[in-house]
Queue: 2 jobs
Job 1
Amino acid sequence: MDQSVAIQETLATEEDCITSDRGHFETLVKAAVRTWHHKVAAFCFICVIVCACSVRLFIYTHRRMAITADDVSLEDIFPVSRHFEVVEVSSPDELAILGADTRIRVSFQEEVLEVSLPFGSHSRFFLGELNKAWSDVCKSSSHVPKFEWLHKHSKTTGGQAVIKQSLTPLGAKMTKLSKQTGLSQRLHTPDAVAHSPAHQGTRAGPEIAARAVQNEWERYGTCLGEGGAGREDRNDMVRSSSHTPANKAQMLSIPQFGLRDNLIRCELLKNEDQYTHLQDFSFFLATYNVNGQAPKESLAPWLSCSSSPPDVYCVGFQELDLSKEAFFFNDTPREPEWMRAVSEALHPDAKYALVKLVRLVGIMLMFYVKREHAGFISEVEAETVGTGIMGRMGNKGAVAIRFRFHNTDVCVVSSHLAAHIEEFERRNQDYRDICSRLQFRLLDPGCPPLAIMKHNVVLWLGDLNYRISDLDVDHVKNLITKKDFETLHNYDQLKRQMDEEAVFEGFVEGDIQFQPTYKYDTGSDDWDTSEKCRAPAWCDRILWRGKNIKQSTYQSHMTLKTSDHKPVSSLLQIGIKVVNEEAYKKKFEEIVRCIDKMENECIPSVTLSRRELHFQDVKYMEHQTESLTLFNDGQVPCQFEFIQKLDEPTYSKPWLTANPPKGFLAQGAQVDIDLEVFVNRSTAPDLNIGLEHIEDILVLHLERGKDYFLSVSGNYLASCYGTPISTLCQLREPIRDMPLPAVRALTKGGESPEGGDKPLGIPKEIWMMVDHLFRNAIKQEDLFQQPGLRSEFQEIRDYLDTGVPDSLPGSNHSVAEALLLFLESLPEPVVPYSFYQQCLDCYASATQSKKVISMLPQCHKNVFDYLAAFLRELLKNSDHNNLDVNILATIFAALLLRSPTKQDLAEKRKTQEFFQHFLVQDLS
Amino acid sequence: MAKKTYDLLFKLLLIGDSGVGKTCVLFRFSDDAFNTTFISTIGIDFKIKTVELQGKKIKLQIWDTAGQERFHTITTSYYRGAMGIMLVYDITNAKSFENISKWLRNIDEHANEDVERMLLGNKCDMEDKRVVPKAKGEQIAREHGIRFFETSAKANINIEKAFLTLAEDILRKTPVKEPNSENVDISSGGGVTGWKSKCCS
């Protein structure tokens, strides 16, 4: 029965139950703070619930079959976080039996709960999902799971009436939720639901839920407390979204199991015959419709009829229990009774292990294997399909077990198909339904579900219910008495349907040399004497499908009289693919080598047209570009990106950029990357004095691949741009004519190298530009307001730095702009940063302002006075040059009075007012 | 029967002076081949190889680094995360041996504390050009408590052995618990083999 519908109904819209399993809890090892309804062993559902990014394990107890939300009650919530763990525990006192329940211990800090999950693929799938969710949570450890959504479960505890209701003695109806409200909730948007009082009302749950939630909050609180340090570490490792060589290591170490595994599996399968050989094993198949009876006699005549002990037993039952309880609750005492009876009747000359038992209402299948073969059984799964009432219920249908024996996949089906002589089409339909609906979920979540027919060997047994038709009862009985089974076969529905290929296609059945197994008066060998007086029929059959199978015996067992059917058995010799370990290992290694090779070849790779880039004679504010070509010579498309080096904020030095800095490159494609150098005022000062060089190494990283180093080199031509006023005052020659160490010494120490030579009053570069403007541009229209030419700026800069040509080149506007750029490039502004605040403080007073300026270092003060005097001269010609105090104050205050930090508008205005004092004053 | 193609992933790093044969050592191990033309590695390259040790399939991811001096600052940032480091010198090149202590210091400063180290004296096939006696290699290895092999990528001497030994040493230190294991053998009844949170352990 599927409980997921019932459970989903108890959840809010944004919560989703990804998987659930039916469990049985026996021990609450430590649950002191917990008030559980069931303090003793009880059945429960254990569900993985997700909401947004967080995952919870909800534990519900339930009444019998869980059909609606009324049938389940929430007992506990375990947050699936790093403090959560699930481990499998082996039973302390019992031997680990193949196919036994899986016992897991769920714990969150101090809370521990043990739950048994039924053996099989579903539980495996459930644990797989839980494991996946848990690893996801742990992986994204930097992200703190959000628990807000659990508020809802705590809010739901408000309603008094409901709490009272929750105190019913059994406590079985706890988290009540009517189906109707559940549905209506889904009509709302999630937001509306979360806040609607109706929602809270209907969600009003039991006190227990509140406690569980509260506990969770407490637990989470503790978790935060102690987990803090650990999280920091992880954050440190995650660091940033961009890559560095160091976190590349982490990216590469993420194992990619899936693809490799599948490739290897595929290759192994392809070459199976190279490392396996066939070996016959005896399979004893048996089927018995017991008509709801308890075992009354030894089953040894049926199960131990072979001379030597078979290797494998597959024993199927039908109509194990015909009671309503069995039908509705899938719960019957017959299961252990018949299991015991079978176990006792197995061949006495060998020891057998019960690998798996599966039952659906009255249909059961047991799979035993000789102890010495147990180690070669793997991938055991069991599934059931009901085809009874409404086409779903378990009164008819099939149970199946699949397993791998050595290297052969075997599937055994025990089925009970539709009854009544005329219903053979229905039986055909049941068969088809079973084949299509019965799917084994494998351990590996990457594998698709496995259908019955996908197995190397399929063994199908059971009460298939096909009858003998078109013959009257007496005629049938007459033929049986004459043992003319051959004639009778012609009237057997199964034989006919198989001949028509309407059912059991590809299956083989051995010759039937025994009389029909149905229907006898119970306790006798007499044909049915009841009112219905049913015609005898071979209802109970054993078929197989697959290669290398020989039937040794196929018989009924008349001595057993418990039921109105006789049991049937067949001994098959099946050729099983046995692995030659040596050959397997060799093949496996060969494949691994091959895949390693493929993987190595698939590492993204590119060739670079050049690894060394040289920038010759880099100048201030002058772009230089060098290009290289990236060619994807690998076998896969690749993603490239320049990544930052450890402890560096960007992938390159600030004067260097790559364009494009990242991109995608198809296989065989190429892309040109431009590396561009541009030295601006922030990078020039250190380059001028040789503290910094045009030198860098770029790391070009390929996603999941190699890293390439690109060496960038070059030389920078020192410039007065970006050189301090104090240094320039010491230089009587153009800066380029000075040896670099001398300039560096000047900048650092401030001492004149020529010893005794008086420093210049102001840098000659300023004088040259200002004097030029004073002489040529005093009446220039829109001076300082019209931009100059870039090429002329470069000429002016070269003139200032080298003294060549003989006079200052360029138009008035270009010279004016070069002057502004010069002032802007000064590492220490004309009004040094340390005076900036004082200027702001006294901007309102002309006297105070002048006092501040008088305190500047001599060369700075000189430059300031010189510029102010020049600007005042300009203002005298404002009729021609269109300048006024405001314009000049705006332009020059921003260059002379620079803020050491970010400047706001008010400050800006103050600096302008400050500077205006010097523009309006008289020279006196 | 094996279900998974590898159980563990080990990251190894090859370091040492330029031209000592790091790339050749790797190429010999991964592709069982040797190339006489010298192409300086300018960057970080890697190859993978799956080996089996003590019944465990271990995927080795081996990183080859640029040996040139000018790249040292950058290559040290790749040390972090390496579980094993092979420090290679050339027995025909005294300078490459003298630099060993510098490389070892580098490891101390930049690699994980518990990184497994190994010293390789490569090109041992060139006996006539040898300038570093084997004893000297052994001595420095002993002083630092690390393993030492003389190898030849060209003559395929000790290459496989060196890698397997290094992997084994790492394996010995690796906790038995494998949080990523999805292996389930039948005797466990199916399900989880035991995974728990790291911060609880």
Job 2
Amino acid sequence: MKKELLIQNSRQLGTFVGLIVVTAVFWILSPYFLTISNLMNIAEQASINAVIAVGMTFVIIAAGIDLSVGSIVALSGVVLAGALQASLPVPVAILLGLGVGALCGLSNGLLISFGRLPPFIATLGMMSVARGIALFYIDGRPVSGFSAEFRSLATGEIARIPSPVIIMIVLYILAHCILHWTKLGRYTYAIGGNEEAANLSGINTRMIKTTIYALCGMLSGLAAVLLTARLNSAQPIAGLMYELDAIAAVVIGGTSLLGGEGTISGTLIGVLIMGILRNGLNLVGVSSFTQQVVIGSVIILAVLIDMAVRKDRTILLAKGIIK
Amino acid sequence: MTKTPIRGPCSDFNFYSKIMPNITALHMRHIRKVFPGVVALDDVSFDLKAGEVHVLLGENGAGKSTLVKILSGAIQKTDGEIVLFDNPVEIDSPKQAQKLGIGIIYQELNLVPSLTAAENIFLGRERTNSVGLIEKHTLLSSAQHILSSIGLQIDCDQPVRSFGIAQRQMIEVAKALSLDARILIMDEPTSALSETEIKQLFGVIRKLREKGVAIIYISHRLQEIFEIGDRVTVLRDGKLVGTRMVYETSQAELVKMMVNRELKEQYPRHRTDRGEEILRVEKLNRKGALRDISFSLHRGEILGISGLLGSGRTELARALFGADRIDSGEIVIKGKCRKINSPRTAVKLGLGFLTEDRKSQGLVLSLSVKDNITLSSLDLFSRLGVISNKREEREAKSFIEQLRIKTPSNHQKVLNLSGGNQQKVVLAKWLSRKADIFIFDEPTRGIDVGSKVEIYQLMNQLTAEGVAIIMISSELPEVLGMSDRILIMYQHTIVCELKSEEATQERVMRYALGAA
């Protein structure tokens, strides 16, 4: 029984071992790496990708993909910044930012569920549309300088833990609960596993899918809030390539791009691995060009190992070692 | 720019037919296959003569597939000997098996739908001219030649997509023949075919037999064995039970050999008193699928729907369930006229649909047994969208016990269950939802004899509790054995309604073929 459990969870274990290996390597290479302040730094830097990756996890488990998250971050950011500059109350401005994100996600969802567009196409379109509107909205120039009240979202601390990290932790606990203990979560797995069967079981698959994309958009909006507060500036070119970071984190975390399988804890580990790589490579003094090569290679390697493990599992299943 | 000559189709057949039937094409001796922890095959010997149809019979998990997989090179034996035409051989890969002249036709066909029949037959072995272009004429005429040698008249230049499953199977057969297959393995070839298509397939099999091809035929359908088989070998729990000449044995004996117990009745229908009308359909129409369908259904009854593939049976089920839109017509459920425009509505009105294809439409294979059982009824176990784990577990457990679903735990993925147990999970899903109008589309397809009877008994239990069942089936004995009334469909409409007492196989078939 124990052995079974171990093999069942081998995928999760693998990612976790990866996290430890990466940590160990940088610990050896740089004495500064494993200090509290640097770890906090990593968590804070990773928090933006972390927030986006939560939405992406839902989307990918439901056998979809969202390429527009980066552009939505930019659009939500500039709308938020505009609202702050117009001296709207901070909570209202934040709600506006989240709302814009949710709206973009909603239209993604509607196009995919009711327009029957492939997710790749619908969100590819939105990627360009949202970016374009963002550029148009503030005429291509960044907006900077916000009140301390707003910036405390990024700079604040509770018990020496930066507030973005706290937001991230709360979000991950919430997302985990939603995936495991609610109908929305169960239906997300069901749709990703077999949409036809889910539909024929009486599940309103279109509505669930729309909800998931709207949620993903809203979380991009939340990422925009954190990013704007941290940089004290909103730029229409913010969030470039964020979709790839998020997808990479989700995939490294063991969620299958084919849908139906995946965990939120896996995504968290994926996010941390990405964050540690970025931070560690900087500390060691690897150039940003080389960093891209290294990170890309890690993604490919992670998926290769994942496939090997899965294949192994299938063989073990076929041989009747595990059930 | 390789020049691979297309081998002369069926060139060696005359040779075999002359010295048949005494030549032993294949001898598998004392085959043993051990998977870690499980003995899948234990000292199984099996022989196959040129020009015979040798049926392999056994419940799911008896070892049939393992034996066939060893022969096709998909897995390797642990112990034992394989002798092919008097030469001991080792089959270590599917490619090797192909080289040795062993062809296999899988249940899931391996054709490329967008390519033509001829292109599929010679896929990867196309003959090219000096500039590397495919010689289409040679390709077509060779393909036509092989197909007509097994008595199939189709246009080889049509994409495979445009052919029915039966014809696709024969294209697979032709492909195997083009590879000079001397031994052909057919794994449940008739499971997706209608009666006429089966007749056609059997015609082809007889032709192959005349030509001296040795055929291993796996099937769950007992009556087929007597129609097409020469010898039958029964496996149970990885062991050889025995081999019989078909003309010397009986269905009863075979069933006994398979399950080691006598099945008292293959179709144990207990008729219950017909209750009130629960569903009435009037003048249902859907362009190109359904024409003027009217019928009624009462509590406690099993209404059988028979008809050939493409007669509109499944289309009717899908329309009733809201999976396909209807153009006109009325559906009255429990006295109220209802518009069903999505499966969601249908489920709310108490309908449950056990689809023809469990794996692609009935189950989420990546989810656990528990999750599949409660998939339709989560509303009943959740408040404000939050699922009560305890109640859900309890529900799933009670159905696993009640339906005797064989699974190590609630959390086992359904993917790993056998066909019969998967079907029970689908049934549990609708029971959990408290559906009272069940549509069973091919309820026992691909399910072994033992589980079949269990499914029938569950149907009895359901009707006794006042549930109404619509049962669509291609298996005539099943329709006749289990239904209280039978509707026969032909060309998208109902041509006849028979009471079970007045129905015979011949009569039903006559109507299904359009001959009144």
